[in-house]
Amino acid sequence: MAGPHAALLPAAPGQAPRLHLQHGPIDLVISADGAESEVAAAYRQAGDRFATVLAELVEELPALRRAAAAGDPPLAGATARRMQAAVRPHAAHGFVTPMAAVAGAVADEVLAAMARGRDLRRAQINNGGDIALHLAPGQSYTVGLVPRPDRPALAGAMRVAAGEGIGGVATSGRHGRSLSLGVADAVTVLAADAAAADAAATLIANAVDPGDHPAVRRLPARTVDPDSDLGDRPVVVAVGRLSDGDVAAALAAGLARAEDMARRGLIAGAALCLDGRLRATGAAAPRLAPPPQHRNVHGGTVHA
Amino acid sequence: MPDVPEKIRCDACPVMCYIDDGKAGACDRYANSGGSLIRVDPLTVVANAQAQGTPLVPFLGKAADWDGELVRPGDEFVTAVGAGTTYPDYKPAPFIVSSHVDGVDMVTVVTEGIYSYCGVKVKIDTDRHLGPERAVVRCDGEAIGHVTTGEYGSQMLSLGGVNHLTGGSKREGRVTCQALLDLCNGKAVEMAIDDGSTVVIQAGMPPVVNGQREELMRVGCGSAAIGMFAKQWYDLVDEVVVVDDHITGVLSEHQAGKVLGARPTGISIRGRRSTPGRYFQVAAPGTGWGGTDVTDPLSILGDFKAKQAWPGLTMMMVSTTGEHAAYYILDDDLKPVLHDLTPALVASVERVRENCEPALCSVLFMGGAGGSLRAGVTENPVRLTKSVKDTLTYVSAGGAPVYVWPGGGITYMVDVTRMPDNSFGYVPTPALVAPIEFTMKLDDYAALGGHMDHVVPIDDVVGPEGQRHDQRQLARRADNPWPLDRSHFKWNPGA
Asked: ipTM greater than 0.90, yes or no?
């Protein structure tokens, strides 16, 4: 069995190298801006924390795959507790398991360990599209929006600045690694941390759904992934041609869910993409500027 | 092959997904292809391999001094490193490889065993006091083993074992597993011994005791040192004391000195006299002179007896490694006064040092190839045990020779430095994963109830079809016997 793996990714000219941490299904790409020694120390702290993250999660996997309820006893691991906290506010509104927040929670947990005691201008941990952000006062990141994660191209960009209460950006949809109950190509959520953004993006993407439709093929989750926390719930495996009306209705259903979450203070904003159409709410709506002229993927732009 | 491919359990990471045929695990890196676990991210494999400088070729050994001849049958051996396992081994081992060697059909069963019962035995070449026998050895505060016997110029530790892996708290098990894994993969591990020292251990490297790197083993105990060097010292100095935690030697009283006609010097040693010229317990154990806590060697001496000693008497005190040495001359009150060593004595101390071997840490993995692992080899596991005991089956670990303990089971020990790099892995049980290969004649394999329908010729494993496996080609280590050599087996006519 392979253990955790850490590697510095070659740096673009003028940029600090990024840190790649991988263990089993977890892939983190980490970058930080600050004094060289601070960044090096931060990377070490990240690596140290990362060493046991997966093992800790595996220990509680059965509990993490069970439907969350408001009165659940607290889980043991720090990452598991982040997952639990992120999904608990959604538990009363339908089926959700802590696994809906796993990617974001891992990013948050490693970011917290990495930033502790370090002087960094900014730092970000991208866990397969779920991103935890650390911004010192006055700093910002530009987050690129990719409407179809399987066809990387920027549809817009959002600037996230320090002091706005946004510490996480997460994207969910049909083209990622997780299964979705909905048809959204991508739902990108801004929230206080990556775990909250991850859970919300998962649930909003599930809600982007035209309902029973001949073009939408579904299968019990278990037949697609025997270990899925979704059990026998029907996951979308193929989407044929949807009419403009179907697309609008699906997006409206998702948007309603997102707006409800924004009203309850669970998210700062969301952008929903389906079939080339985009709806946004909350903090995401006014930020969707045209993509920057120079798409500098190594620099300040992070791809959600 | 079964008609309906079954789910397989991926052991590539702690998640241990059950993967259906045609599906990938949670990581999207490993998938089930017709019942075989395959890597589906070849780019990552290539990148990893390049980063490690490992060529992407079969993970087999070939003679290092290959002279350009065509590879002969039997010149290739598949090790179990990276072979994977069929946890919990209710299925045949991942590779059962046949080859034709000098007219004999041989088979090697290759698997990575999961060892809940395993540990490491560590031999630390040092005279320094590491801790009392039976003291607990800790990593990150968790008990991972204990100090066991003192041996020739060295201290033994026994680490791991089932009681620490799964018999204690979860954290104790996890920390123990990590320490064993690191030690077995040749990494340095720092451990603290209760009421003793902090020591950094790395297989094949000198130990570091309380931050100090141990360079040399002692030449022998103090008494042995007197025996070895008496003749050289006798002409240079009236008295020599070799300070040693075990047996401190005194030249003038020692049998070796007597034989040379050494004159009594009136020296008195604070310690328990064993036989003439040999003293136990001259000081407490420590990290000073000769593994004692002595920093001023005169502290182990009483007053010189006026009847025998004389002003101008010369005396050298030296440790068993030659790392410490001092030269004294008695003044008119028969008190030793420190002087510089004479050039001849400097040379003799250098000789002591020269005769000390480099101090090393040796790490032997010890594991029991228990019931379920053997089931991957044969339908009748006890027959494998018997076959090993009967020397019909040769056991190797990553191609390295093992010592199989007598008695029940297949409990073996292997020097981890003779195995390929990073041979070991772990599962979250916690338990270690280590490669093991069983080599025997094909008909012996059939006789012990082997999985004959899973035997594949070696060319099929290493040939083009086999290249879907992440393979690593290593040169044979000259000091490892070739696992397919017939001299291992009872049926060898020369045996």
From this structure: no
